[in-house]
Design a protein that fits this description.
alpha/beta, Dihydrodipicolinate Reductase, domain 2, 2 domains, 9-stranded mixed beta sheet, 6-stranded parallel beta sheet, 34% helix, 32% strand
Length: 349
């Protein structure tokens, strides 16, 4: 039996507590939050767990083997760093850290101490995204031409992050999981129409990611939409897929549509022909994604395995976020993605 604790009981923490408490493979022994009122709210989710306002108390407890961190982004690194140094396995909310240097350090520390470091890229554990990956890997879509994603709603405004760092980690993680290609550059523009008491962060943004073979990915994230959309379109040379997370009956729709180029020998020119075939809506496993993710974390601890969304996956997403933020800061200037270890180069320079 693996002893687990949760640090942070705000927006996402209660969901972690609820799911870890249901697992037979582990025991949720403690939860920490600086706000006593939030501890009062979550105590009924697992009456047997110990409640504390001190994260330090959990990190110093040698009986706790794994910690789930659901605190503000700026605190992810120091808490996870200390947890790994204390020999604990770490499950950390998205985005993994506020900088790629911090993400690299956590990844290296986890490897050095042989601890599990897993990032909660929750959508990777949905039945729809996993089914989508099986279609991509089978080659049924053919050559992937483009990736287009929309994640918009009204709110929730974050005090410590803009819309890019709040919403885009989901879509960057899904893209990273699905597209077996190397991203090389990012460009992004954003706007900050909503401001109060000195708070001025981007509340809508458009991001483009270029891959080495010319494939283009585009993302729209927005806190100021009157409707809520969670939709991704992947265009392939053979088939195309729409993934609509908010459609409970048909989350995936696979269209046998596309274009074909045929040579007209008599006219010595290429003709574009359009192909329209069947529509397939496969059955999707509806198991709660966070439940799958929490179980996967415990399984990796108990079997000394690397998580599907490990530290390197978290690092790749943070690098995309950093590049997009840099591009926004400079009016949409294209930003190259850094390869290799920046920390190693700095140390040797």
């Amino acid at each position: 039996m693996t002893n687990i604790a949760v640090i942070g009981c705000g927006y996402w923490g209660p969901n972690l507590i609820r799911n870890f408490a249901k697992l037979k493979e582990c025991q949720l022994v403690a939860a920490a939050d600086q706000g006593r009122d939030r501890l009062d709210v979550v105590k009924f989710l697992c009456p047997t767990m110990r409640l504390t306002t001190s994260a330090e108390e959990i990190l110093e407890d040698k009986t706790i083997e794994g910690v789930a961190i659901a605190t503000p982004i700026s605190t992810h690194f120091p808490i996870a760093q200390k947890a790994l140094a204390k020999g604990k396995h770490v499950f950390i909310e998205k985005p993994m850290t506020a900088t790629s240097d911090e993400a690299e350090e956590l990844t290296e520390l986890a490897a050095k101490n042989r601890r599990v470091l897993m990032v909660d890229h929750t959508f990777i554990y949905t039945g729809a995204v996993r089914k989508l990956r099986s279609f991509v890997e089978s080659g049924e879509l053919g050559e992937i031409y483009y990736y287009d994603s929309v994640r918009i709603n009204l709110g929730l405004f974050q005090h410590d992050a803009n819309v890019l760092w709040d919403l885009a980690p989901h879509d960057f993680a899904i893209m990273d999981y699905l597209i077996p290609k190397r991203a090389v550059s990012v460009s992004a523009v954003g706007s900050s129409p909503v401001r109060w008491n000195g708070w001025r962060r981007e509340s809508l943004a458009y991001i483009s990611v270029d891959f080495e073979d010319g494939t283009l990915a585009h993302f729209h994230v927005n806190w100021l939409s009157p409707v809520k959309l969670r939709r991704t379109l992947i265009g392939g040379s053979r088939k195309m897929i729409i993934y609509d997370h908010l459609d409970p009956d048909n989350q995936l729709k696979i269209y046998d549509k596309g274009v074909e180029i045929k040579e007209d020998q008599e006219r010595y020119q290429a003709l574009v022909q359009y192909r329209t075939g069947d529509l397939l809506a496969p059955k999707i496993d509806q198991t709660e994604a966070l439940s799958v993710a929490c179980r996967h974390f415990v399984h990796c601890i108990q079997n000394q395995q690397r998580p599907e969304t490990d530290g390197m996956a978290g690092l790749r997403v943070v690098r995309l976020l950093e590049a997009a933020q840099h591009s926004m800061n400079y009016g949409g200037r294209r930003t190259q993605l850094w390869e290799g270890s920046r920390r190693a180069q700095v140390a040797s320079g």
